[in-house]
Every structure is written in C-alpha cells, then in structure tokens.
Amino acid sequence: MTTVQDALSHIAAEDMRHIMRVQSAALKAIHDYMYSNGVLQSMPVILSPMTDPLNHPHFDANVEYYGQRLQLTKSMILQKQLSLFNGGMDKVYFMSPNVRLEEARLRDTGRHLFEFTQVDIELKDRTKKDFMQLVDGMLAYIYEFVVRECLDELKALGRELKLPTVPLKVYESEELKDRYGEQFETIASEKAEDPFWITNFRREFYDREDKERRGYFHNYDVFWPEGYGEALSGGEREYEHDEIIRKMKERSTDIGAYATYLSVSEKGLIPRTVGGGLGVERMVRYLTGQRHIRDVTMFPRVPGEKVVF
Ligand code: AMP
Ligand code: MG
User: Fold this and answer.
1) H helix runs in the chain, sequence order
2) Quick one: which atom of ligand 1 is closest to the CA of 279?
3) From CA 44, how far away is CA 116, in angstroms rounded?
4) Which of 202, 57, 28 minimizes the C-alpha distance to 119?
5) Quick one: which atom of ligand 1 is closest to the CA of 100?
6) Alpha carbon separation from 209 to 16, 150, 250, 253 (Å, rounded)
7) What residues does ligand 1 touch, defined as CB less than 6 Å away?
8) CA gap 271, 125 in Å, rounded
C-alpha cells in the first residue's frame, strides 16, 4: 500500500466499518470490566527519558527536547510500576500507544506493526495467580459482549467465535517445548480452540526470576487460538535493586539509561507488582478473523512499509 489511492481504498473498505464496530465493542467491554473491578485508568505518556529495552532487535526512536533526549515509549512497563507508588491505588491500566520500529523482515508475519496500542495493566501486592484470574474474566467478558453486540458484523465478516471455557488452560513453556519443539508457541496456538496461558520465559530484566530456582521466571503469555499467536505478555516484576542490577548486567542493558529508575529502586521504593499488556490490534485481528494486522488498522504501520497518511 504505497499510493494515496490505495490508502483511501483501504480506509473505505466495507469490512473496515464492521471491524471498527467489533473493536469499539471489545474496548467498551474492557473499560467496563476494569471499572467494575476497581482498576483505574491512567493516561499514557509517549515521551520519556527511559523506556522498555525490549528483548528483540529493533530500531530506537527518540527526539531531543530542550536538551533532553526523550524516547518514544516502546511500552509503559516502568511507568506502570511507578504509578503504583501512589499509596491509595493498587490497580491501574493504560491504553498505551507504543512505537517499536520493528525490522522489515517482520512485514509478512501478519502480527507486527511498528505503532500499536496495548491495554497495559498492573496490580500492586498481588501474585500472578491474581492477575491470571483478572485476565481470564476480562477475556470471557470481551467474547461475551462482542458476540452479543456484534452479531451482524461477525456474520458479515464470516467470523464465528466460540466462547472460551475459563479458567483458561495454563502450560509451562518447557512442557510445550518437549512436546512440540522450538516452534511450540506457533504449534500450540494452531492446535488450540480457546486462548491459553504459557508460563516461564527468559526475557527482559523486569520480569521476576525465582531466587531459589534461578532460570525460572514468574512470567507468562496469553495466546489466541486458531494460530493467531501471542495476545498478551506479562509477569510478576523485579522490585529489589540488587536483582534489577544483576539482571541488567546479565542482559548487557545500558544501566546509565535507567539512572532515575534505579535511584528509586536503590531506595527500595519500587512497588511490588504484577501485570501484563494485551495488544489491541492483535485482539481485533483475532476477533474479526483477519489474516493480516494491517487489515484491522485504518492507518497501517507495517514494518518496512511506506507510510501514506
Ligand atoms: P510485549 O510485552 O512486548 O509482548 O507486548 C505486549 C503485547 O503487545 C503483545 O503480547 C502483543 O499482543 C502486542 N504487540 C507487541 N509487539 C507488537 C507489534 N510489533 N505489533 C502489534 N502488536 C504487538
Ligand atoms: Mg510478548
């Protein structure tokens, strides 16, 4: 999609309004669910001196503003943790726009954009079990609401959604690796009929590693079924300064880039939290049964593709 005409045809496609209606219903379901569960919505930021380091190759995006170098947020993980420094708030979420300048080789995965939005949730003084329960309930509520509200749209799109059985199944990554090999995420998603959890992945410094059982991480992903792949990533978080530093070193993280965050952890003031982020466009792609994530965004930002509007 490189011409103005192509971009206009994309916006004007008949399916687009059906997809936007499904998206609106799903977002309403999320906001209603959060509100009734006491999860408070805070507004996102997209410029910050620090952001998620991410654990895969990508390009950095930053701007200089009055002598300060500000990054475009790749996720709000660190801000989410800090927002719960407010003693009266223990559950928070953000509709967080993320800029991740992904490599062009990801153009045809059907799952990658270089700008997308996460429903980014964090809970204080809770465990992964609490978070998983909250998300199970949220997903069940989204399905139920969308199926009820968007009968005509789903029919027009030729999409049939089966309500999932909750609690969703939980697998260990090692167990699935033994069963399916290195491509276990893809294969498990293709075989599944309901969304499901996989726990324990080695990734960024902020996901909590078990102190007694090194190499075991208290984190998880949710996967959509039917081969739609990853839906959400999250975990219990590191909050102890020594652990954060140890893990940053292990991952060759630029420690200086996190100086302000580390000045807080050094004082023992990072709240003890658990959370995760659900990709909005990937959710809509799954709910509406689209092949490529491009087709659920009015203004697609596909890795390596020219942007028109
Ligand atoms: P992460 O914590 O990096 O896994 O991101 C949280 C969620 O955002 C993922 O589970 C996806 O649903 C979504 N997501 C991550 N990267 C992208 C991307 N490049 N394009 C679209 N959605 C994404
Ligand atoms: Mg992930």
Assistant:
1) 4-12, 14-36, 77-83, 128-149, 151-156, 173-180, 184-191, 241-250, 259-266, 280-288
2) 12
3) 13
4) 28
5) 19
6) 42, 42, 12, 17
7) 75, 100, 102, 112-113, 116, 118, 230-233, 277, 279, 281-282
8) 8
Q: What is the pLDDT of residue 90?
A: 98
Phi-psi region of 227 (alpha: psi -120 to 50; beta: other; left: phi over 0): left
What percent of the chain lies above the pLDDT cut of 70?
100
**Angle value at C-alpha 229, between 72 and 51, nearest 5 degrees:** 15
Q: How many residues in the chain?
A: 309
Sequence-distant (≥ 6) Cβ neighbours of residue 176 within 8 angstroms: 184, 185, 188, 198
Q: From ligand 2's centre to the CA of 78, what distance in Å?
A: 16
CA torsion angle for 7, 8, 14, 19 (degrees, to 10)?
50
Q: Rounded to an integer, what distance in angstroms lies between the CA atom of residue 232 and that of residue 54?
A: 14
Instruction: Say what the pLDDT of residue 2 is.
Output: 81
User: Tokens representing 243?
Assistant: 């652990």
Tell how far the Cα of 230 is from the centroid of ligand 2, in angstroms: 7
Which residues of the chain, if any, have pLDDT below 70? none
Please tell me the predicted confidence (pLDDT) of residue 63.
98
Q: Rounded to an integer, what distance in angstroms lies between the CA atom of residue 118 and that of residue 205? A: 20
Rounded CA-CA distance 146/290 in Å is 16
Q: Is 247 helix (H, G, I), strand (E, B) or coil?
A: helix
Q: pLDDT tens digit string along 96-131? A: 999 999 999 999 999 999 999 999 999 999 999 999
For the chain, what is the mean pLDDT? 98
Give the CA distances from residue 208 to residues 82, 127, 190, in Å, rounded to whole numbers and listed in that order.
16, 11, 29
Ligand number nearest to the C-alpha of 55: 1
